[in-house]
Amino acid sequence: MSEEKERLPGAEQPAGAGSAAGAEQPSGAAQRDFLARQRGSFDPALLLAGLRNGDRNSLARALTLVESDRLEHRKLARQVLEACLREKTTATAHASLRIGITGVPGVGKSTFIESLGMMLINAGHRVGVMAVDPSSEKSGGSILGDKTRMEKLAAHESAFIRPSPARGTLGGVADRTREHILLFEAAGYDVVMVETVGVGQSETAVHGMVDCFLLLLLPGAGDELQGIKRGIVEMADLLVVNKSDGDFEKRAVETQRDYERALHLFPPTESGWVPPVLRCSSTIQNGMSVVLEKLLAFRDAMHTGGHFARRRQEQAGSWLHEAIRDGLSAGFYANPAIRRALAEEETAVRAGNVHPLQAAERLLERFRER
Amino acid sequence: MSEEKERLPGAEQPAGAGSAAGAEQPSGAAQRDFLARQRGSFDPALLLAGLRNGDRNSLARALTLVESDRLEHRKLARQVLEACLREKTTATAHASLRIGITGVPGVGKSTFIESLGMMLINAGHRVGVMAVDPSSEKSGGSILGDKTRMEKLAAHESAFIRPSPARGTLGGVADRTREHILLFEAAGYDVVMVETVGVGQSETAVHGMVDCFLLLLLPGAGDELQGIKRGIVEMADLLVVNKSDGDFEKRAVETQRDYERALHLFPPTESGWVPPVLRCSSTIQNGMSVVLEKLLAFRDAMHTGGHFARRRQEQAGSWLHEAIRDGLSAGFYANPAIRRALAEEETAVRAGNVHPLQAAERLLERFRER
User: Fold this and answer.
1) Residue A352: helix, strand or coil by DSSP?
2) Which residues from chain A sit within 8 angstroms of residue B93, using beta carbons?
3) pLDDT tens-place string over residues B176-214
């Protein structure tokens, strides 16, 4: 996406008003001019005004801003995010619903999200959607083809779909995804869906940033689940067997029963919520209203018990501590001398010749002495 | 346990030979004398010699030494542990088997461990046992009473039972448990069982330090599992329904079938091993030989596929990186000024007023500036 295309329609007029970027002299080379405009387009005050008005371009630009690794962008991004956080009263913050949706490629995530999203829009909500795994595009959506992916939802003015950022590290994706959620909410999207493909560690990360975690299943016995990481089933608040239509319906019923039985053997969730196993066909729109009903029932139950607010507070606290630990590790692992020493120590440790704690202590000592 | 009681029988003779403690003048107050003797009893060379001979007192003292938080003790402990690591050839290291055993209080862990332990001893093994959760003593063993807990095993010369260290932080327990395993192996215990109670985070930690993770289940539907943390079932390499005798047998058969069906729905383990669900009564010694058989089959399968060595290498590598991260965090969180600032930031973050990344950055900056 080019910055030009994303620029706020009225960005030119208020330039220079209150922003450091605008304070620069407008004279100079074309490149300087372009950079100034670009910086202007990331002006926190303008972005915030746009977000408050639900302006799509502002949202797109804000999402792009928080994805940037450039130090100046990170600073601007945090100004925007802090303002978003401060403006939200507890009431509006908790009025939103963040849903994680996962399932193997081919389970029909896109169709399901589109179907659920349209129902939520018809019920008066505004829906934001983002994907965390870039891989989901490759294998997952290929059945329907990329062009028809959430076509109706993508065209609707009450929906905003953000494709997955192509990032290397999960940590980065996770952080930015959390920030994206805040921006979506600031722009008035009160339902935010985060799609993951169920093969990596993304699910654990996403589970730590949503209110409700929904697992889509294929009809048929467990063999189809080979792509799903162990432990994901137990994180689910809602399980939905998709593609329950035509020839698949009988198998879908069996799968539903199998999972109901299996889940009964697992310990209850902290809140006492019993994850239901539902069945639907998002293609022929069958069973989707029950999915929506259960989703809202889950949300209400969490609110009633106070678990909703508690979960969000805990997620914010975890994010802080994770960020601290990540920051400490980043400083350590970025040090070239440390990296060389670490490679040697690690080989010896893995071979069983050196005690891990001894190696760690030597490396930490070296790091502190720098 | 008093140091006096634990002292190596011949500790007096070689005092002063090579050890720093022994180099001190023996004249002085009784207390100085006692301290010198005590330090002498932690002499790495003596401890190692004792461990090599399979001396029980040396093992007990080495276990105590690595539990100590005193800096001088930590240094001595690492000397001992590094020597243990260096002496072990890859062959002998892999000849050992580390088993994690978990289950809710009342599932019969002690009886099970005693029964399995005696079978292993009869097959020529030497068996070390330790508990990780102090809580397991309180609620778990109370049915049989503490005195009869693993009575036969405790009295056997080929077994060594170490009660749980009473520690606050899990991190500490986990580290020390890993070190205890090394000491047990150095003293010739080729099977080491680590018992946890299944309610805390200990299981994940223990899973990261054993070769085989065994979950004990009660006969009856999932309701009894309320105490077990979600996710533990999926970590198990072996599941065993205990107390399958008398009136419970019918329910045990049902439970076994239920879990077999449920596990079928879960994705396979990385190694391709399918965790079997067994049934036994450790009280009347029924079905225990099948448990032993499957346990050894698991070990052999892991060795054949190379998973055994790989898992150990990965565990050692993880330990190193965990130790680095823990060390970095410890330095950060131990700082009084940081702790005060953190408390304020955390409150604001949890209330949703401050962006976690912003708060983290401020705190990290402050920490670096010290």
Assistant:
1) coil
2) 352
3) 888 899 999 999 999 999 988 765 567 778 888 999 999
In the block, tokens 């997952």 appear at: A140
* Facing residue for A317 by CB, picked from B78, B226, B346: B346
Q: What's phi and psi for B149, nearest 5 deg?
A: -65, 110
Which tokens go with B240? 């065993």
Nearest by CB to A265, from B93, B262, B268: name it. Answer: B262
Distance CA B326, CA B314 (A): 18
Measured CA distances, A341 to A67, A345, A347, B22, B162 (Å) = 32, 6, 10, 35, 36
Average pLDDT of every residue of chain A: 79
A228 contacts in chain B (CB < 8 Å): 267
State how far the alpha carbon of A117 is from the alpha carbons of A121, A189, A284, in Å: 6, 12, 15
Quote the ipTM score. Answer: 0.70
Choose from A132-136, A194-198, A230-234, A342-346 the range with maximum mean pLDDT: A342-346
Q: pLDDT tens for residues B313-338?
A: 999 999 899 889 989 998 999 999 99
CA B66/CA B44 separation, integer angstroms:
12
| End-to-end C-alpha distance for chain B, whole angstroms | 42
Do residue A264 and residue B221 have CB atoms under 8 angstroms apart?
Answer: yes
The C-alpha of A81 sits at a distance from chain B's nearest C-alpha, in angstroms, of 7
Band (A342; pLDDT cuts 50, 70, 90): very high
In chain B, what residues touch A256 (CB-CB under 8 Å)? none
B231 and A226: CB-CB below 8 Å? Answer: no
Counting residues of chain A whose pLDDT is more than 70, the rounded percentage is 76
Binary contact (A316, B261; C-beta < 8 A): no
What pLDDT is attached to residue A51?
93
Whether residue A257 contacts residue A239, with contact meaning beta carbons closer than 8 Å, is answered with no
| pLDDT tens digits, A97-125 | 999 998 877 788 889 999 999 999 999 99
Residue B149: is its pLDDT beyond 80?
Answer: no
Residue identified by tokens 């003797």 is B37
CA distance A71 to A158: 33
| CA A98 – CA B19 distance, rounded (Å) | 62
- Is the CB of B350 less than 8 angstroms away from the CB of A82? no
C-alpha to C-alpha distance for B319 and B81, rounded to whole angstroms: 14
* pLDDT for position A181: 93
* Shortest distance, CA B369 to any CA of chain A (angstroms): 13
CB spacing of B319 vs A265 below 8 angstroms: no
CB B219 within 8 A of CB B244: yes
Q: Is the pLDDT of residue B159 over 90?
A: yes
Q: What is the dihedral of CA B223, B225, B229, B232, to 10 degrees?
A: -120
Angle at B70 between CA B68 and CA B74, to 5 degrees: 70
Say if residues A144 and A112 touch (Cβ distance below 8 Å).
no
